[in-house]
Amino acid sequence: MLMALQGHPGLEWDVARCSEEELESLTGWTALARELRPLLHSGDLVRSETPDGTVLVTGTVAADLSRAAYTVARLVTGRDAVTGAVPLPGLDPARTYAVRVRPEAGLPAVVQAVAPAWWERALSADGLVVPGSVLTGVGLSVPILGPAQGYLLDLRAL
User: Fold this and answer.
1) Higher-confidence residue: 28 or 85?
2) Cα separation of 137 and 119, whole Å?
3) Strand pairing of 140-141 and 85-86?
4) For site-directed labelling of 96, which of 18, 56, 65, 67 has its Cα 20 to 30 A away?
């Protein structure tokens, strides 16, 4: 469902056969898709990847640079388990952003005991406050994700 958000978020699933837990998850995901739709349909598409090509960042940035949504996905397991930081392109380096991980898009399976220092704060409603210059120049460290795993970052300028 994560990858469908920036493409075709239609459901091709017999929801009448879903469990209560699946229906609750779908309700949150469809609300997120509706919330992000104006951004995803009008923003500029940006991409970034790790030097070895194992982690891809696909984002949509609002024309006024006030909001962005990025999908961070591990495509395959690379030679190095630790990815390091991946820049988030397209943001205004002069602004400050609240960065949130959106669990409604699904949380990834990780292969590490402790998440990066920023992760828990970004899961909160207020998010993690980071200068745009850091996000575009350095980025955020990527958790050690299993193959075909990812997460959604939702950024708002403060």
Assistant:
1) 85
2) 19
3) antiparallel
4) 56
Residues 110, 107: Cα–Cα separation, whole Å: 9
Q: Report the SS3 class of residue 127.
A: coil
The reported pTM is: 0.89
Alpha-helical regions (H) of the chain: 20-42, 119-122, 132-137
Q: Do 158 and 129 touch, CB atoms closer than 8 A?
A: yes
Domain membership flag for residue 74: yes
Within a domain: 8: no
> Residue 25: pLDDT above 80?
no
Q: Residue 89: give its domain's CATH number.
A: 2.60.40.1180
What tokens were used for 111? 């292969």
- Which residues are registered as beta bridge partners of 69? 60, 154
77-97 pLDDT, tens digit each: 766 667 788 999 999 999 999
Q: Which domain holds residue 56?
A: 15-157
pLDDT grade, residue 14 (50/70/90)? confident
Compute the average pLDDT of residues 133-158. Answer: 93
